[in-house]
């Protein structure tokens, strides 16, 4: 196995630069529209840009099939997510999460946001995308586990896409205002989109896996999964959802992450 160390280092630097450019542009847009929640749209775009830069920098060095997969999978996932969030948030006020965060800002709120929102998300995107950035420079051909990764990625995109579409339809019905969605994929997991997100990154890791350097990046899908389940994902969302009627019953019978058949009510209840 040959690993192109020199081009890899150049690729890392250019990826970091591309992340900085995307974040600065996003910050400028946020100042114009008056809300920092536009960073949520940029989240998926960051991974797509990193994948594109890595693909270009690894040209002539890594295995062609792996390079193409590590381009197409993140770009499709990141592009779909960016478009979905942009459509969902256009014309909406600032996200309450950012209002709460910036209310505690010492000094200039914009500089605080630049550090605590933009820089933090940029660093996370750069680190989480490590399997892409390392995997693209391997000369080893794709192992069978790569196709398991593609299947896992497809499963993840299905759960994210279908889950988001079901939530959009639910919210468009005025009769559902203030209610909890409990149908479709949401019947089997309280967070189909977060489960799908985790599947996507474990799938990308398996596609990238071909040598010991990539094995070291296993901390990235692990970190993403923890972020989704214990960090800023499910934990914060459920704190908001728990205020709605019927939450306790829904949470008691529905899996918190991995899709499972709904639990039956106890005979004593």
Task: Explain what you see.
With 269 residues, the chain is mostly helical. The protein has 2 domains: 1-140, no CATH class; 142-262. It contains 12 helices and no strands. It has helices at residues 5-33, 39-57, 64-89, 96-103, 109-128, 130-135, 144-172, 192-208, 212-215, 219-229, 234-241, 247-253. The longest helix is centred in the N-terminal third of the chain and has 29 residues, at 5-33.
Short summary of the structure?
It is built from twelve helices and no strands. The protein has 269 residues and is an all-alpha fold.
What is the β-strand count?
A: 0
How much strand? under 5%
Order of helices and strands: HHHHHHHHHHHH
Structural class: mainly alpha
Q: Which parts are unreliable, with pLDDT below 50 for 5 consecutive residues or more?
A: none
What would you call the shape?
globular
Measured on Cα atoms, how large is the radius of gyration?
A: 20 Å
| Count of separate DSSP helical elements | 12
| Separation of the first and last Cα atoms | 60 Å
Number of domains: 2
Overall pLDDT confidence: 90
Largest sheet, in brief, is: none
Helix content: 55-70%
């Amino acid at each position: 196995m040959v690993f192109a160390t020199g081009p890899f280092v150049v690729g890392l630097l250019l990826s970091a630069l591309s992340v900085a450019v995307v974040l600065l542009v996003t910050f400028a847009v946020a100042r114009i529209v008056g809300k920092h929640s536009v960073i949520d749209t940029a989240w998926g775009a960051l991974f797509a840009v990193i994948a594109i830069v890595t693909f270009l920098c690894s040209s002539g060095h890594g295995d062609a099939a792996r390079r193409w997969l590590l381009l197409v999978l993140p770009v499709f996932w990141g592009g779909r997510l960016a478009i979905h969030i942009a459509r969902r948030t256009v014309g909406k006020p600032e996200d309450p999460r950012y209002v709460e965060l910036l209310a505690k800002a010492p000094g200039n709120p914009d500089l605080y946001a630049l550090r605590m929102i933009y820089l933090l998300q940029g660093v996370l995107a750069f680190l989480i995308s490590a399997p892409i950035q390392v995997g693209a420079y391997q000369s080893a051909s794709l192992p069978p586990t790569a196709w398991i990764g593609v299947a896992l990625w497809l499963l993840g995109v299905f759960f994210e896409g279908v889950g988001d579409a079901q939530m959009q339809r639910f919210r468009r019905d005025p009769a559902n205002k203030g209610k909890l969605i409990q149908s479709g994929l949401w019947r089997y997991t309280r967070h189909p989109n977060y489960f799908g997100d985790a599947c996507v990154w474990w799938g990308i890791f398996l596609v990238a896996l071909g040598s010991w350097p990539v094995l070291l990046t296993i901390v990235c899908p692990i970190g993403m999964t923890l972020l989704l389940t214990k960090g800023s994902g499910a934990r914060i969302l459920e704190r908001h959802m728990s205020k709605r009627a019927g939450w306790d019953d829904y949470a008691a019978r529905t899996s918190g992450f991995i899709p499972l058949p709904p639990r039956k009510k106890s005979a004593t209840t």
